[in-house]
Amino acid sequence: MTDQPLTAIPRPAQVPAIPARLEPDAIGVAQDTIIGLASSAPAATMAVTMAGMAATAAYGGGPVIILCGIPMLILANTYRRLNLWNANCGASFEWVGRAINPYLGFIVGWMMLAGCLTGTISVVVVLSPAVLAVFGASATSAWPNILLSTGVIVIMATIAVVGIRLTARTQVAMAVVEYAVLIGFSIWALIYVLGHHPGTFPPTKGWLSLSGIDGKGNLAAGLLIAVFMYTGWDATVYVNEEVKHRRVNPGRAAVFAVALLVILYVLPQVGMQGVASPARLQANASSALVFVAQVLGGGGWAKVMAFALALSVIASTNVGIVITSRIAYGMASHRVLPPVLGNVSRRYSTPAIGTVIVAVILIAATWAYLLSTSIATVFTDVVSVTGLLFAGFYTFTALAAVMYYRRRIFSNTWDALLVGILPLASAVFLAWVVVKSLQTAPGSEKWSLVGILGAGVVLMLAARFILRSPFFRIPLESAAKLPLSR
I need a surface site. Which of 32, 143, 370, 406 has the fewest CB within 10 A? Predict the structure, then answer.
């Protein structure tokens, strides 16, 4: 297969690929797609958002999720286009740095690192309760949670160190079970609701409306939830050095991942939200999927759903470790982070030291969260802005595409649409999401975001003046203006 773009837009002048120090051509586009899905953690995400989306969108969550999927697909295609130009584990760090400004590129890279790390922490702290629920054990005792979380992190980090092939195989095995359970229960639930069983909340035409039942849905708030649900699909490009046809397949996998997430979110939302009355659903909002399974089939089936939820958070933990270490590896290759993070194991062809450091940070954060109430409060505020970090670097990535392809925007209608209007519209949408979120966020969350960005500025100055990284002297690039491409 040749590395051909999916659209008719001429190939950009490619940045010479950094020689692969990680294992080249190790996984294919299907496995990479699974990695992107696992990073979004469909089952775990639905568990924490389904009841909230039902209430916010007045049971019109399905159309809201589909609507939000449109700009996400545009963004995924933008990632695909940029990866054709420059296939590097640093991804948006490189693209923004080379197309807009290297200093802004560093801040975007820091946002990626912080977003992936805090997102993984948020998964880890709910990991052990999900696993303990499978066995009917108490999830409130600190030490069982600590030991179980630590054990899972160590195992997932070990798999990540051994290699991307083992990681991909592990992800596929977990995904088959997780998605089968999620889709199976969604179809079962929809049939159950359509059968008008006692206690159900049957669908109406309001379920198919963006404004929900009787126009009572809050579209803006629903879109905020939906953006959070989709975050993580970009994991496909952070392993591009290890994917076959590294310039082409990671971008394709990103598009495939978003398209599949639309299905994996709409089907459970529409299928499961009517199994019980609105009051009962909201009363069990913290364990909505397990509650629905309990209503449908009793305790045995509830444990099956809890098992799928546990697989989802375990898979997301594994991918979080993998992609965070590779983003750090990509940045360290330019000496904007300590060079030790760019070291690659000769035996396993993975950034082993960086992977271990990420795992240690996760373990320390988990212990601190579970043992200290005050620290847990701080972590909660930090984790709450994870979605804003993702929306932020997605926005700058879309703007990087517009800047890089700016000479082609006026060459013809097709180019103007694909590399100009649509990415810019997506950037505006995400900027609106960030503004709306900040307007309603408590002061503690706003200060957490300020703290994260402030730490990024300090690290940027250290990279510039202490590490003396050459990245800050990289000349800006743009695609050449070419003749009509259709």
Answer: 143
Residue type present at position 125: V
CA distance 461 to 123: 31
Across 106-133, b (16+ Cβ under 10 Å) vs e yields: bbbbbbbbbbbbbbbbbbbbbbbbbbbb
- Residue 85: C-alpha distances to residues 10, 29, 160, 408 (Å): 11, 18, 28, 14
CA pair distance 365, 320, nearest whole angstrom: 14
Q: What is the pLDDT of residue 19?
A: 59
Rounded CA-CA distance 164/26 in Å is 7
- Give tens-digit pLDDT for 211-268: 999 999 999 999 999 999 999 999 999 999 999 999 999 999 999 999 999 999 999 9
- Which structural domains are found in the chain, ordered by start? 29-465 (1.20.1740.10)
What backbone torsions phi and psi does residue 233 show, to the nearest 5 degrees?
Answer: -60, -25
CB neighbours of 404 closer than 8 A, spacing ≥ 6? 12, 82, 85, 95, 98, 99, 477, 478, 479
pLDDT(51) > 60: yes
Provide the token pair at 164: 């991307």
Tokens of 131: 């696993």
Tell me the per-residue pLDDT of 264-292, one tens digit each, with 9 for 90 and over.
999 999 999 999 999 999 998 878 999 99
144-156 pLDDT, tens digit each: 778 888 898 999 9
The sign of the CA dihedral 251, 72, 471, 334 is negative
| Owner of token pair 């051909």 | 4
Q: Say if residues 349 and 167 touch (Cβ distance below 8 Å).
A: no
Dihedral sign for Cα atoms in the order 87, 84, 34, 244: negative
Residues of the chain above pLDDT 70, percent: 91
Q: Rounded CA gap, 377 and 366, in Å? A: 13
Mean pLDDT, range 347-369, rounded to an integer = 92
3-state secondary structure of 203: coil
Given a contact cutoff of 8 angstroms between Cβ atoms, the answer to whether 71 and 425 are in contact is yes
Residue 27, SS3?
strand
Instruction: Find out whether 26 and 243 touch, Cβ atoms under 8 Å.
Output: yes
Q: Could you tell me which residues come within 8 angstroms of residue 67 by beta carbon, excluding any fewer than 6 positions away?
A: 210, 223, 226
Which of 233, 174, 228 minimizes the C-alpha distance to 397?
Answer: 233
Residue whose token pair is 């009509």: 484
Of 173, 82, 133, the closest CA to residue 394 belongs to 82
2 exposed, middle or buried (CB, 10 Å; 0-12, 13-18, 19+)? exposed
In angstroms, the CA 131 to CA 137 distance is: 9
The number of beta carbons lying within 10 Å of the beta carbon of residue 199 is 9
**Which of 104-108, 149-153, 292-296, 322-326 is least confident?**
149-153
